[in-house]
Amino acid sequence: MRILESKQVGRLIARKAARLTEAEAVVRPILDAVRQRGDRALLEYARQFDKLTRRSVAVPLRELAAARKALMPEFASAVEIAAANIRAYAARQMPREWTHQAAGIRLGQIVRPLDTVAAYIPSGRYPLPSTILMTVVPAQVAGVRTICVASPRPVTEVFGTAGLLGVEHVFEMGGAQAIAAFAYGTRTVPRADRIVGPGNIYVAAAKKLLAGEVGIDFVAGPTEILIISADGDPTYLAADMLAQAEHDVDASAILLTTSKRLAAAVSKEVDRQLADLPTAAVARKSIARNSAVVLVRSLEEAVDIANRFAPEHLSIPDASLLPGIRHAGSVFVGPFSPEAAGDYCSGPNHVLPTGGAARIRGGLAVTDFVKVISVQELHQTALARLSPTITTLARAEGLEAHARSVEVRTK
Fold first, then answer.
1. CA 76, CA 82: separation in Å to the nearest integer?
2. Active-site option among 172, 224, 269, 313
3. Which CATH class name applies to 3-14+222-347?
4. Domain coordinates of the chain in residue numbers?
5. Annotated catalytic, 312?
6. 327 an active-site residue?
Protein backbone atom coordinates (compact mmCIF):
# COMPACT_ATOMS: atom_id res chain seq x y z
CA MET A 1 0.00 0.00 0.00
CA ARG A 2 1.42 3.37 -0.98
CA ILE A 3 2.58 5.96 1.56
CA LEU A 4 2.37 9.62 0.51
CA GLU A 5 3.45 12.98 1.87
CA SER A 6 0.73 15.49 2.72
CA LYS A 7 1.78 17.70 -0.22
CA GLN A 8 0.68 14.84 -2.51
CA VAL A 9 -2.77 14.54 -0.98
CA GLY A 10 -4.46 16.91 -3.44
CA ARG A 11 -4.66 14.40 -6.27
CA LEU A 12 -5.74 11.67 -3.88
CA ILE A 13 -8.69 13.56 -2.43
CA ALA A 14 -9.74 15.00 -5.79
CA ARG A 15 -12.38 12.39 -6.44
CA LYS A 16 -12.77 10.89 -9.84
CA ALA A 17 -15.82 12.47 -11.43
CA ALA A 18 -18.57 9.89 -11.55
CA ARG A 19 -19.49 9.00 -15.09
CA LEU A 20 -22.93 10.44 -14.48
CA THR A 21 -23.15 12.22 -17.83
CA GLU A 22 -22.76 8.93 -19.69
CA ALA A 23 -25.16 7.20 -17.31
CA GLU A 24 -27.74 9.96 -17.72
CA ALA A 25 -27.76 9.40 -21.48
CA VAL A 26 -28.41 5.70 -20.87
CA VAL A 27 -31.24 6.12 -18.35
CA ARG A 28 -33.11 9.02 -19.96
CA PRO A 29 -34.99 6.77 -22.45
CA ILE A 30 -35.84 4.39 -19.60
CA LEU A 31 -37.33 7.19 -17.52
CA ASP A 32 -39.35 8.45 -20.48
CA ALA A 33 -40.64 4.97 -21.29
CA VAL A 34 -41.84 4.32 -17.73
CA ARG A 35 -43.45 7.76 -17.57
CA GLN A 36 -45.30 7.18 -20.83
CA ARG A 37 -46.09 3.45 -20.66
CA GLY A 38 -46.10 2.71 -16.94
CA ASP A 39 -46.22 -0.96 -15.94
CA ARG A 40 -45.69 -2.22 -19.50
CA ALA A 41 -42.33 -0.49 -19.79
CA LEU A 42 -41.43 -1.33 -16.20
CA LEU A 43 -42.01 -5.05 -16.78
CA GLU A 44 -40.04 -5.01 -20.02
CA TYR A 45 -37.01 -3.49 -18.33
CA ALA A 46 -37.37 -5.68 -15.23
CA ARG A 47 -37.31 -8.79 -17.43
CA GLN A 48 -34.41 -7.47 -19.49
CA PHE A 49 -32.15 -6.17 -16.73
CA ASP A 50 -33.33 -7.91 -13.54
CA LYS A 51 -34.30 -11.24 -15.13
CA LEU A 52 -37.77 -10.97 -13.58
CA THR A 53 -39.82 -14.14 -14.06
CA ARG A 54 -42.98 -13.30 -12.09
CA ARG A 55 -46.00 -11.68 -13.77
CA SER A 56 -45.79 -8.53 -11.68
CA VAL A 57 -43.01 -6.64 -9.91
CA ALA A 58 -45.16 -6.66 -6.76
CA VAL A 59 -44.01 -9.30 -4.28
CA PRO A 60 -46.97 -11.13 -2.68
CA LEU A 61 -47.30 -10.90 1.10
CA ARG A 62 -47.19 -14.69 1.36
CA GLU A 63 -43.72 -14.63 -0.24
CA LEU A 64 -42.51 -12.08 2.31
CA ALA A 65 -43.93 -14.24 5.11
CA ALA A 66 -42.18 -17.31 3.70
CA ALA A 67 -38.87 -15.43 3.47
CA ARG A 68 -39.29 -14.29 7.05
CA LYS A 69 -39.82 -17.86 8.23
CA ALA A 70 -36.79 -19.01 6.24
CA LEU A 71 -34.41 -16.64 8.03
CA MET A 72 -31.81 -18.24 10.27
CA PRO A 73 -32.65 -17.56 13.94
CA GLU A 74 -29.36 -15.75 14.57
CA PHE A 75 -29.97 -13.49 11.56
CA ALA A 76 -33.52 -12.67 12.68
CA SER A 77 -32.22 -11.90 16.18
CA ALA A 78 -29.54 -9.61 14.76
CA VAL A 79 -32.17 -7.75 12.72
CA GLU A 80 -34.33 -7.24 15.80
CA ILE A 81 -31.42 -5.89 17.88
CA ALA A 82 -30.27 -3.58 15.10
CA ALA A 83 -33.82 -2.35 14.45
CA ALA A 84 -34.28 -1.50 18.12
CA ASN A 85 -31.09 0.58 18.19
CA ILE A 86 -31.87 2.36 14.92
CA ARG A 87 -35.42 3.03 16.11
CA ALA A 88 -34.21 4.54 19.40
CA TYR A 89 -31.72 6.80 17.62
CA ALA A 90 -34.31 7.94 15.07
CA ALA A 91 -36.77 8.74 17.84
CA ARG A 92 -34.20 11.08 19.41
CA GLN A 93 -33.82 12.84 16.06
CA MET A 94 -37.53 13.63 15.71
CA PRO A 95 -38.17 17.38 15.62
CA ARG A 96 -40.58 18.51 18.31
CA GLU A 97 -43.81 20.42 17.99
CA TRP A 98 -43.99 23.65 19.98
CA THR A 99 -46.10 26.74 20.55
CA HIS A 100 -45.08 30.15 21.87
CA GLN A 101 -47.41 33.03 22.64
CA ALA A 102 -46.46 36.65 23.27
CA ALA A 103 -48.01 40.07 22.62
CA GLY A 104 -51.08 38.70 20.89
CA ILE A 105 -49.19 36.38 18.52
CA ARG A 106 -49.23 32.59 18.84
CA LEU A 107 -46.41 30.95 16.88
CA GLY A 108 -45.43 27.33 16.59
CA GLN A 109 -44.64 24.37 14.42
CA ILE A 110 -46.30 21.05 13.73
CA VAL A 111 -44.54 17.94 12.44
CA ARG A 112 -46.16 15.74 9.80
CA PRO A 113 -44.86 12.62 8.03
CA LEU A 114 -44.63 12.23 4.28
CA ASP A 115 -47.43 10.10 2.84
CA THR A 116 -45.37 7.66 0.75
CA VAL A 117 -41.64 6.90 0.65
CA ALA A 118 -39.60 4.40 -1.32
CA ALA A 119 -36.38 2.69 -0.30
CA TYR A 120 -34.03 1.33 -2.93
CA ILE A 121 -32.12 -1.72 -1.67
CA PRO A 122 -29.16 -2.94 -3.76
CA SER A 123 -28.83 -6.68 -4.28
CA GLY A 124 -25.99 -6.99 -6.76
CA ARG A 125 -22.57 -8.20 -5.61
CA TYR A 126 -23.61 -7.74 -1.98
CA PRO A 127 -27.34 -7.79 -1.15
CA LEU A 128 -27.88 -5.29 1.67
CA PRO A 129 -30.67 -6.21 4.10
CA SER A 130 -29.09 -3.74 6.53
CA THR A 131 -30.12 -0.94 4.17
CA ILE A 132 -33.76 -1.94 4.67
CA LEU A 133 -33.25 -1.32 8.39
CA MET A 134 -31.60 2.03 7.76
CA THR A 135 -34.29 3.28 5.39
CA VAL A 136 -37.50 1.68 6.66
CA VAL A 137 -37.08 2.07 10.44
CA PRO A 138 -36.64 5.89 10.41
CA ALA A 139 -39.65 6.16 8.09
CA GLN A 140 -41.68 4.10 10.54
CA VAL A 141 -40.57 6.31 13.43
CA ALA A 142 -41.60 9.35 11.38
CA GLY A 143 -45.08 7.85 10.92
CA VAL A 144 -45.03 7.40 7.13
CA ARG A 145 -48.18 5.53 6.14
CA THR A 146 -47.00 3.86 2.92
CA ILE A 147 -43.43 2.54 2.91
CA CYS A 148 -42.21 0.82 -0.24
CA VAL A 149 -39.10 -1.24 -0.86
CA ALA A 150 -37.54 -2.07 -4.22
CA SER A 151 -34.78 -4.62 -4.76
CA PRO A 152 -33.85 -6.23 -8.08
CA ARG A 153 -33.32 -9.80 -6.86
CA PRO A 154 -35.41 -12.09 -4.63
CA VAL A 155 -32.87 -12.50 -1.82
CA THR A 156 -34.25 -14.28 1.24
CA GLU A 157 -32.47 -11.99 3.72
CA VAL A 158 -33.76 -8.88 1.95
CA PHE A 159 -37.37 -10.02 1.60
CA GLY A 160 -37.28 -11.64 5.04
CA THR A 161 -36.05 -8.44 6.70
CA ALA A 162 -38.84 -6.53 4.98
CA GLY A 163 -41.25 -9.09 6.38
CA LEU A 164 -39.82 -8.78 9.89
CA LEU A 165 -40.29 -5.01 9.76
CA GLY A 166 -43.86 -5.35 8.55
CA VAL A 167 -43.29 -3.77 5.12
CA GLU A 168 -46.15 -4.71 2.81
CA HIS A 169 -45.19 -2.90 -0.39
CA VAL A 170 -42.15 -4.73 -1.76
CA PHE A 171 -41.22 -4.75 -5.44
CA GLU A 172 -38.78 -6.95 -7.31
CA MET A 173 -37.31 -4.28 -9.55
CA GLY A 174 -34.10 -2.32 -9.80
CA GLY A 175 -32.12 0.20 -11.76
CA ALA A 176 -33.42 3.38 -13.36
CA GLN A 177 -36.78 1.74 -14.09
CA ALA A 178 -37.45 1.30 -10.36
CA ILE A 179 -36.60 4.95 -9.65
CA ALA A 180 -38.86 6.05 -12.51
CA ALA A 181 -41.73 3.89 -11.27
CA PHE A 182 -41.58 5.50 -7.83
CA ALA A 183 -41.17 8.99 -9.27
CA TYR A 184 -44.11 8.81 -11.69
CA GLY A 185 -46.22 6.04 -10.17
CA THR A 186 -47.79 3.19 -12.14
CA ARG A 187 -50.88 1.06 -11.62
CA THR A 188 -48.74 -1.34 -9.60
CA VAL A 189 -46.22 0.98 -7.95
CA PRO A 190 -47.32 3.91 -5.76
CA ARG A 191 -45.91 7.33 -6.54
CA ALA A 192 -43.46 8.26 -3.78
CA ASP A 193 -42.90 11.62 -2.16
CA ARG A 194 -39.25 10.73 -1.57
CA ILE A 195 -36.86 8.01 -2.76
CA VAL A 196 -33.95 7.05 -0.52
CA GLY A 197 -31.16 4.51 -0.49
CA PRO A 198 -27.94 3.81 -2.40
CA GLY A 199 -27.53 2.21 -5.81
CA ASN A 200 -25.23 1.89 -8.81
CA ILE A 201 -24.35 4.71 -11.18
CA TYR A 202 -27.58 4.24 -13.18
CA VAL A 203 -29.69 4.52 -10.03
CA ALA A 204 -27.71 7.63 -9.09
CA ALA A 205 -28.20 9.15 -12.54
CA ALA A 206 -31.94 8.45 -12.44
CA LYS A 207 -32.27 10.06 -9.02
CA LYS A 208 -30.35 13.11 -10.21
CA LEU A 209 -32.54 13.53 -13.30
CA LEU A 210 -35.78 13.07 -11.34
CA ALA A 211 -34.89 15.29 -8.38
CA GLY A 212 -37.66 17.90 -8.32
CA GLU A 213 -40.14 15.45 -9.81
CA VAL A 214 -39.68 13.47 -6.61
CA GLY A 215 -37.74 14.12 -3.41
CA ILE A 216 -34.45 12.26 -3.02
CA ASP A 217 -31.90 11.90 -0.24
CA PHE A 218 -28.78 12.59 -2.32
CA VAL A 219 -26.92 11.32 -5.38
CA ALA A 220 -24.60 8.64 -4.03
CA GLY A 221 -21.14 7.87 -5.38
CA PRO A 222 -18.39 5.41 -4.41
CA THR A 223 -18.09 4.79 -0.68
CA GLU A 224 -15.17 6.24 1.30
CA ILE A 225 -13.49 6.42 4.69
CA LEU A 226 -10.88 8.81 6.06
CA ILE A 227 -9.07 7.83 9.25
CA ILE A 228 -6.98 10.11 11.48
CA SER A 229 -4.59 8.36 13.84
CA ALA A 230 -1.26 9.22 15.47
CA ASP A 231 -0.58 6.07 17.45
CA GLY A 232 -3.38 3.59 16.80
CA ASP A 233 -3.27 -0.17 16.49
CA PRO A 234 -2.14 -1.10 12.93
CA THR A 235 -4.32 -4.21 13.01
CA TYR A 236 -7.45 -2.17 13.74
CA LEU A 237 -6.61 0.53 11.22
CA ALA A 238 -5.85 -1.91 8.40
CA ALA A 239 -9.04 -3.83 9.12
CA ASP A 240 -11.09 -0.61 8.94
CA MET A 241 -9.51 0.35 5.62
CA LEU A 242 -10.22 -3.06 4.13
CA ALA A 243 -13.79 -3.01 5.45
CA GLN A 244 -14.31 0.00 3.22
CA ALA A 245 -12.24 -1.21 0.29
CA GLU A 246 -14.16 -4.48 -0.11
CA HIS A 247 -17.34 -2.64 -1.08
CA ASP A 248 -16.29 -1.68 -4.58
CA VAL A 249 -13.22 -1.21 -6.76
CA ASP A 250 -13.97 2.54 -6.75
CA ALA A 251 -14.13 2.76 -2.94
CA SER A 252 -11.42 4.69 -1.14
CA ALA A 253 -9.73 4.29 2.25
CA ILE A 254 -7.30 6.97 3.44
CA LEU A 255 -5.28 7.07 6.65
CA LEU A 256 -3.78 10.36 7.82
CA THR A 257 -1.04 9.95 10.41
CA THR A 258 1.85 11.89 11.92
CA SER A 259 3.83 8.68 12.52
CA LYS A 260 6.15 7.17 9.88
CA ARG A 261 6.36 4.01 11.98
CA LEU A 262 2.55 3.66 12.07
CA ALA A 263 2.32 4.37 8.33
CA ALA A 264 4.73 1.56 7.53
CA ALA A 265 3.05 -0.83 9.96
CA VAL A 266 -0.42 -0.20 8.55
CA SER A 267 0.78 -0.56 4.97
CA LYS A 268 2.34 -3.91 5.85
CA GLU A 269 -0.74 -5.00 7.82
CA VAL A 270 -3.09 -4.23 4.93
CA ASP A 271 -1.06 -6.59 2.71
CA ARG A 272 -1.08 -9.26 5.41
CA GLN A 273 -4.84 -9.10 5.93
CA LEU A 274 -5.51 -9.10 2.19
CA ALA A 275 -3.82 -12.50 1.91
CA ASP A 276 -6.79 -14.42 3.33
CA LEU A 277 -9.65 -11.94 2.79
CA PRO A 278 -12.47 -13.57 0.77
CA THR A 279 -13.24 -10.23 -0.88
CA ALA A 280 -9.60 -9.50 -1.70
CA ALA A 281 -10.21 -9.40 -5.47
CA VAL A 282 -12.26 -6.25 -5.00
CA ALA A 283 -10.44 -4.79 -1.99
CA ARG A 284 -6.98 -5.11 -3.53
CA LYS A 285 -8.00 -3.00 -6.54
CA SER A 286 -9.60 -0.36 -4.33
CA ILE A 287 -6.48 -0.18 -2.16
CA ALA A 288 -4.18 0.11 -5.17
CA ARG A 289 -6.23 2.65 -7.12
CA ASN A 290 -7.91 4.93 -4.62
CA SER A 291 -6.34 4.46 -1.19
CA ALA A 292 -3.19 5.47 0.67
CA VAL A 293 -1.53 6.24 3.97
CA VAL A 294 -0.68 9.94 4.12
CA LEU A 295 1.98 11.41 6.40
CA VAL A 296 0.88 14.75 7.86
CA ARG A 297 2.81 17.27 9.94
CA SER A 298 0.20 17.51 12.70
CA LEU A 299 -3.26 16.40 13.73
CA GLU A 300 -4.43 19.94 12.95
CA GLU A 301 -3.31 19.45 9.34
CA ALA A 302 -5.12 16.10 9.32
CA VAL A 303 -8.36 17.75 10.44
CA ASP A 304 -7.94 20.43 7.76
CA ILE A 305 -7.50 17.75 5.08
CA ALA A 306 -10.52 15.88 6.43
CA ASN A 307 -12.68 18.99 6.18
CA ARG A 308 -11.51 19.57 2.60
CA PHE A 309 -12.37 15.97 1.72
CA ALA A 310 -15.72 15.95 3.59
CA PRO A 311 -15.69 12.16 3.84
CA GLU A 312 -18.67 9.86 4.06
CA HIS A 313 -17.08 8.13 7.08
CA LEU A 314 -14.55 9.84 9.35
CA SER A 315 -12.69 7.95 12.07
CA ILE A 316 -10.85 9.97 14.73
CA PRO A 317 -8.77 8.76 17.70
CA ASP A 318 -10.72 10.59 20.41
CA ALA A 319 -13.35 13.26 20.98
CA SER A 320 -10.77 16.05 21.35
CA LEU A 321 -10.80 16.48 17.56
CA LEU A 322 -14.59 16.81 17.28
CA PRO A 323 -14.70 20.62 17.73
CA GLY A 324 -12.60 21.01 14.57
CA ILE A 325 -14.72 18.72 12.40
CA ARG A 326 -16.98 20.68 10.05
CA HIS A 327 -17.72 18.28 7.21
CA ALA A 328 -18.39 14.54 7.51
CA GLY A 329 -21.24 12.13 6.89
CA SER A 330 -20.72 10.23 10.13
CA VAL A 331 -17.92 10.36 12.73
CA PHE A 332 -16.53 7.31 14.54
CA VAL A 333 -14.66 8.15 17.73
CA GLY A 334 -12.03 5.96 19.39
CA PRO A 335 -10.48 2.54 18.73
CA PHE A 336 -13.63 0.56 19.53
CA SER A 337 -15.96 2.41 17.15
CA PRO A 338 -15.37 0.68 13.81
CA GLU A 339 -17.37 1.80 10.83
CA ALA A 340 -18.96 -1.67 10.70
CA ALA A 341 -20.78 -0.92 13.97
CA GLY A 342 -22.47 2.04 12.31
CA ASP A 343 -23.10 0.05 9.14
CA TYR A 344 -25.26 -2.39 11.03
CA CYS A 345 -26.51 -1.75 14.49
CA SER A 346 -25.16 1.03 16.73
CA GLY A 347 -28.07 3.30 15.79
CA PRO A 348 -27.01 6.11 13.44
CA ASN A 349 -27.80 5.70 9.76
CA HIS A 350 -25.43 4.16 7.24
CA VAL A 351 -27.00 5.88 4.23
CA LEU A 352 -24.50 8.73 4.05
CA PRO A 353 -23.45 11.49 1.63
CA THR A 354 -20.46 10.73 -0.60
CA GLY A 355 -18.41 12.65 -3.11
CA GLY A 356 -18.12 15.74 -0.92
CA ALA A 357 -21.87 16.07 -0.34
CA ALA A 358 -21.13 15.96 3.40
CA ARG A 359 -20.28 19.63 3.01
CA ILE A 360 -23.98 20.39 2.77
CA ARG A 361 -25.78 17.64 4.68
CA GLY A 362 -25.40 14.72 7.04
CA GLY A 363 -26.69 11.18 6.66
CA LEU A 364 -30.21 9.93 6.17
CA ALA A 365 -32.33 10.72 9.22
CA VAL A 366 -35.88 10.67 10.49
CA THR A 367 -36.06 14.33 9.39
CA ASP A 368 -35.93 13.15 5.75
CA PHE A 369 -39.35 11.59 6.26
CA VAL A 370 -41.20 14.46 7.91
CA LYS A 371 -42.22 18.05 7.18
CA VAL A 372 -41.91 20.80 9.79
CA ILE A 373 -44.85 23.14 9.17
CA SER A 374 -44.96 26.61 10.66
CA VAL A 375 -48.15 27.84 12.37
CA GLN A 376 -49.12 31.41 13.26
CA GLU A 377 -52.18 33.02 14.78
CA LEU A 378 -52.43 36.78 15.30
CA HIS A 379 -54.90 38.59 17.56
CA GLN A 380 -56.57 41.66 16.05
CA THR A 381 -54.51 44.01 18.23
CA ALA A 382 -51.27 42.30 17.19
CA LEU A 383 -52.12 42.67 13.51
CA ALA A 384 -52.93 46.35 14.06
CA ARG A 385 -49.57 46.86 15.77
CA LEU A 386 -47.68 45.20 12.90
CA SER A 387 -49.76 46.83 10.16
CA PRO A 388 -47.37 49.74 9.44
CA THR A 389 -44.43 47.36 9.09
CA ILE A 390 -46.32 44.96 6.82
CA THR A 391 -47.81 47.61 4.55
CA THR A 392 -44.54 49.54 4.22
CA LEU A 393 -42.64 46.43 3.16
CA ALA A 394 -45.45 45.27 0.84
CA ARG A 395 -45.61 48.61 -1.01
CA ALA A 396 -41.81 48.75 -1.26
CA GLU A 397 -42.10 45.52 -3.22
CA GLY A 398 -44.96 46.82 -5.35
CA LEU A 399 -47.46 44.35 -3.87
CA GLU A 400 -50.44 46.61 -3.16
CA ALA A 401 -52.93 43.80 -2.61
CA HIS A 402 -50.73 42.49 0.20
CA ALA A 403 -50.90 45.84 1.96
CA ARG A 404 -54.64 46.18 1.46
CA SER A 405 -55.27 42.64 2.82
CA VAL A 406 -53.97 43.94 6.15
CA GLU A 407 -55.54 47.39 6.05
CA VAL A 408 -59.00 45.99 5.38
CA ARG A 409 -58.74 44.20 8.75
CA THR A 410 -57.34 47.10 10.78
CA LYS A 411 -59.38 50.15 9.75
1. 10
2. 313
3. alpha beta
4. 3-14+222-347, 20-221, 380-410
5. yes
6. no
